[in-house]
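tool_call: predict_structure(chain=1)
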Amino acid sequence: MKKKKYLNIAIVGLGNIGSNLYKHLIRNRESIKRKTNINLVVKYVSAKNRSKKRKINIPKKKWLKNYLEASKHPDIDIVVELIGGSDGAAKKLVFNSIKNKKHVVTANKALISKYGDELAKLAEKKKVNLEFEAAVAGGVPIIRVIKEGLVTNKIHKVYGILNGTSNYILSKMFEKKMNFNDVLNDAKKLGYAESNPIADINGDDAKSKIQILSSLAFNSLISSSKINVEGIKNVDQIDIKNAKILGYKIKHLAIAELKKNKLIQRVHPCMVANNSYISNINGVLNAIILEGKPIGRLTIQGKGAGPGPTTSSLVSDICSVLRGNIKLPFSIPSKSRKKINSLDISGESFSSYIRLDVNDITGVLSSITKILSKNKVSVKRLIQNPFKNRNFASIIIISHRAKNSNLVKSINELSNKKFIVSKPKFFRIEEI
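tool_result:
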């Protein structure tokens, strides 16, 4: 792209983030010019519902009749996609924009995790930028850190808290002794959770983010195979309380690591020690830890949810385009990014927390330990708590390290026993 004195931008999608970005760019136009030496003009906008009440005043002349106009309009240099979703309108807009040599800035982790490899190839061919800092960890500049700050590092592990909504829920359950649904409703009222938060609480959001991060960290193609994904809906106050007594907190972690040149990716709630760094990341904060050489261990944290943090990352990407640097989306050429074979977690070993609510009758404990022993799961600690005024007991087991497949097999076998009165609870203990 020939260097211009000004660049025109189109914002497609005017929800909370899009509206906030519009206001921010208008208010900070002079500051952006000082830092990039380019005049940024918010030329056009588009939204599914034009008549929706918004706390911004947008002149009629800025509205596009159709969102796809942004992808081909001759006066537009940069398209900011804030529609969301991996397919449909977002996919059409981004692919068409790049084909028409428009720079693209997006916060769409679902789109990048699914089509990032194709989009990167296309962006390289068309010599335009595809920027997606805002797709991972809100205002935390982790993508730029990996792409630019750690360019010569050999990273073997990346992990952390990647979803602000789930972290807020688990934090408040711990701090306020609230149940899951009450905290979720609270998060919606505060704007920390979407009206439909299913992708956050079932782990899909964190899954998309760890796919992107692992691809960047390991210079590989995006891998979607053999990822273990578990959400937080299964966490209740009893487990929160038990974790506290045992010296743990429950956190929802996303983890990607290389072991013997094989990729393992997993997302699930786990118990972490109270004195660990990650256990003290609360509220809507995100935290990402990178391990590699020569850096050793690097930790970066910040707000992972809300319009403000996301806007910060979007503006960073926009300014990157304004400075005129055509950058490779995944730091290295697409032809140099290789597929890494994936492993599931069945062969990985974990200590674990198991809670079994059982009929308080003779022989139950013996039956439980027999099943565990048969599946090569040994007991490190066992606590039995009878329910008041009921013929039930809660048995808490902390296991020694055992293969994930053996732990899961044990849980499945126990679930089918007549003395089990509710679905067993099982959380891995992560030593980080």
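agent: The first strand starts at residue 6 and ends at 12. Proceeding to next step.
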